[in-house]
Amino acid sequence: MTASRILNRIGLWFAVVMIVSPGILFFVWMLSLSLKHEIDNAAYPPILIPEQFAWSNYTAVLESNRFGTYFLNSILVTGSATLLGLLVGVPAGYGMARMKATKSAVVVLIARMTPGLSYLIPLFLLFQWLGLMGTLLPQIIIHLVITVPIIIWIMIGYFETTPLELEEAATIDGADRWQVFRHVALPIARPGITVALILSVIFSWNNFVFGIVLAGRETRTLPVAVYNMISFEQLSWGPLAAGALLVTLPVLLLTILAQRQIVAGLTAGAVKGG
């Protein structure tokens, strides 16, 4: 191995460590907090690994605060917003890609980059006027603001890289536009749809702002439920960290299990584009 290749490899690993280490440090510290009793969490100098693990922090979160209800709410809101987003976003992305609707794509990008608070205030007034506040429906609708632009933007990029020859051959054989989309374009774009689904789930699951404004006591999602564990009278770091890790766990598992699909979907578009 030449000296330049050794230096390149050292530089690569140095860059990886510098980028990844803050995230790993925060995750390890959260895990440490969740496994310590309060006296250990307040100790100075700080204790990273306690002598006795406080598993009671996790059982306290699971047994209290209506964790099961809030977990189900998160699944319903994220699942519904993602499925509806796919139903709208995949055909929209296909149409924009085939019609080369550049201006519409820019509008989608602006919608994706616009802060959620810009949509929250008028939709809050609308939901209040319709008497929907405190139910899951407003949260599902407003989460479409997150999922639909992501899906459309990803699918535009993916459909633009798929070959037109197959669709033209299907058209010559007598297929109409819907049949071409259903039987030719969709199967080819399956990796891109998987990437769009995973990213939509991650962004929707982690959303906090919409839930804290629109949710009632029985319709809170998990991020809002964890936030409500903070009180002015007492702050228990152990249960709070355990709750935060339990909220993160589904998204973390999904990312680990689907990492191959994510990489395959992104690289497939890149190869075809080259």
Identify the notable features of this structure and list them briefly:
single chain; mainly alpha; 14 helices
Give structural notes:
With 274 residues, the protein is mainly alpha-helical. Helices cover 79% and strands 0% of the residues. The chain is built from 14 helices and no strands. It is globular. The mean pLDDT is 83.
Oligomer: single chain
Specify the structural class.
mainly alpha
Residues in β-strands, percent: under 5%
Question: How many beta-strand segments?
Answer: 0
Gross morphology is globular
Return Rg in Å.
Answer: 23 Å
List SSEs in N-to-C order: HHHHHHHHHHHHHH
User: Could you give the distance between the termini?
Assistant: 30 Å
Tell me, rounded to a whole number, the average pLDDT: 83
Q: Could you estimate the helical fraction of the residues in percent?
A: over 70%
Task: Sketch the major β-sheet.
Answer: none
Q: Which parts are unreliable, with pLDDT below 50 for 5 consecutive residues or more?
A: none
Number of helices: 14
Q: How does the SSE layout of this entry go?
A:
Layout: H1 3-34, H2 38-41, H3 56-63, H4 67-99, H5 102-113, H6 116-130, H7 136-161, H8 164-172, H9 177-188, H10 190-206, H11 209-214, H12 222-227, H13 237-257, H14 259-273
Helix pairs in contact: 1-13, 3-13, 4-7, 4-10, 5-7, 6-7, 7-10, 7-14, 8-9, 10-13, 10-14
Summarize the structure.
This protein has 274 residues and is mainly alpha-helical. Helices cover 79% and strands 0% of the residues.
